[in-house]
Structures are given as structure tokens and as C-alpha cells.
Design brief:
Blueprint: H1 9-19, H2 22-26, E1 39-48, E2 51-59, E3 77-83, E4 91-98, E5 105-107, E6 113-117, E7 120-129, E8 134-141, E9 149-150, E10 164-167, E11 173-177, E12 212-216, E13 229-231, E14 233-234, E15 252-259, E16 262-268, E17 275-280, E18 287-294, E19 305-309, E20 312-319, E21 330-336
Parallel strand pairs: 14-18
Antiparallel strand pairs: 1-2, 2-3, 3-4, 5-7, 6-7, 7-8, 8-9, 10-11, 11-12, 12-13, 15-16, 16-17, 17-18, 19-20, 20-21
The chain binds beta-L-arabinofuranose.
Length: 353
Amino acid sequence: MKIKTYGSIFSIAVALLAANGSYSQAVKYLSQPLITAIYTADPSAHIFGGKIYIYPSHDYDAGVPENDNGDHFAMRDYHIFSLDSIGAKPVDHGVAIDLKDIPWAGRQLWAPDAAYKNGTYYLYFPVKDKQDVFRIGVATSKSPAGPFKAEAEPIAGSYSIDPAVFTDDDGASYMYFGGIWGGQLQRWANGKYDANGSKTDLQKDDAPAISCRVVKLSKDMKHFDGAVKDALVVDDNGKPLLGKDHDTRFFEGSWMHKFNGKYYFTYSTGDTHFLAYAVGTSPFGPFTYKGHFMLPVQGWTTHHSIIEIKGKWYIFYHDTQLSGKTHLRNVKVTELHHNADGSIEMIDPFGGK
Ligand code: FUB
């Protein structure tokens, strides 16, 4: 069941109301945009050197019509932001890397992430190559704010979108990646690219849902170390969620955080617009589905990261409060609470928690 489509009636209504100023007065948002000078989305947040760094997509209006492949998300560069604490004004560190500086890139710089190891910062980014196939690249810098220099080739064996890099307590790093529909994950069913792979997951209602991928990163953080595996999400009986479980199955925008020794795999359900979580005992999964923890935001996409800052947990996310347009988003942050039983308290982006 589709609740909204790219270019939904909801977005059009919001845009009309926003234009005459009545929408922002009528709607109560849980939090306000962190950055207003440019449009930002898909915020991956990290603490580096005691500061909060945000690695978002940089939305802009390329004039590309909306479609289910997400062609209207035609981003060309990244800006990195830092802030001293929650509540402080984010500092824009300028262009960290541009499409033209990535030798193998074609178009569409989508949701990035970052990591640190041994004095080097790593920026991971999905972009379509010159054959229009999404791959994941890596770029390095001596500063968390960049500028970053891209490797000459994408990470060997990488595909699809939305890399999220998690470093475990033992120092080992893992990348979670993938997204269906415009993110092309459905074209990689057998580990090989099939341009004729189903356009979406909709034709596979009774088969296990397409899984996010997980892979260990090599010590140099620039390669995959070992096989790419499925980050399987199962129900309480250990059965994989199915393609038809649109309210619960993985769509895109994964993240990993560890809480009380458990691995919390969180993701967007895409066309049903929830953020969901599943918990496991290994970074590779399987992860047992637990529920939603954030209700749909304003806008089609929903993408988040979760970090701990001074003993409190925060979720960085986006909506379309500033523009009312699907592809022109703004980053936000709010507190996230783990309950005593390990569940995550529901967040309502339009009101209370
Ligand atoms: O920003 C482009 C895409 O939209 C991201 O890669 C997805 O996660 C969704 O937020």
C-alpha cells in the first residue's frame, strides 16, 4: 500500500499553504531546521574531537521532474557542518567534495557517511557511475570538515546507496548499505547487476523482503573485507519479513548503534515513511524486528542517524518544513529515548514524543 508517492498531493497541499504562510502557523513541529541557508538532508552525525559533525546530502533544485527513481535528487556536492553542542549554531565548512572531483562519477551524490581511523577521516558516498549504476566511493581527509579527496575508483564490490559505517568496541568497522526502488538494490539479487531487475520490490510480495547489505571494512577502511551479507530482519519466530510487509520491511537509510551491548539496526520503510528498528546480538544480524520509533515526517523521504552525546541519545533526521518540496529538505535533531526494556520510545515529528 502506498501512503504517499514522490510528488504527492500532500506535498502540493503543503507547498500551497506554505506559499501563503498559513502552513507553518498551522503545523506544530517537534523541532526546527538546524540549517536554513542551504537545503540539507540525510544527516549522518558523528562526534569527532569532541565536536558534533553532520555529513548531510546537499539538496538543490536541478529542475528535474519527480519520479519513482528519485531523479529529482540530483545533488552535486557535499557541505559538512559542525557544532559544539546540541542547541549551538552549526558552522558550514563549505564544499567538502564536488561531483567533478570524483573521477568515476556520473550524477546524483546521495546520502553520505563518515568515519575516523588512525588520524584519517573517511567520507563514504553513493553516486551513479558513468553507466548510471549507483556505486559507493570513499574519500579521505586529515580534517573531519574536509576537503576530501576521492579514490580513483569506487569501492570494489560496492553497489546501491546509503552507506552507514559503524565501528564496534573492538575497533572493527562495518558498512551497511542499500536502498530499493531508485536506490537500485533490487537489481542486485544475485550479487550481479541486472538492469532489468524489477523496478521496485512490489512484484515479490510473498518472498523475503530485499535485505540491506552489511560487510566488514578492511583495516585501511577503503575496501570490503570478506563477503557482502544480507542484514536480515526477522519476526519473533525467526522468519524473514516479506516483500509485502511495506509497513515494516527495509527500504533505505540504514543506521547502526549499540545500546546495552545489543546491535540496533534502524532504517526507513520508504513508501510507508516510518523509521523502524530491529535488534540483534551481532553486527551482521539477524535482527529481530521490534517496531517503529518515528512516525512519518513531512515529505516523502525519511533518513536518520543516531548518536550518543554526553550520556543522552539524539536522532538527526530531515523533513521539508522550509520548502514544502520533496527534494528540498532540511536537517533537524531531537532527543531519542531507550526504555528500560530496550525498546525505543516513539517519536512524533509533529508533536510530543
Ligand atoms: O537523498 C537521496 C535519497 O533520499 C537518500 O539516499 C535516501 O535515503 C533518501 O533520503
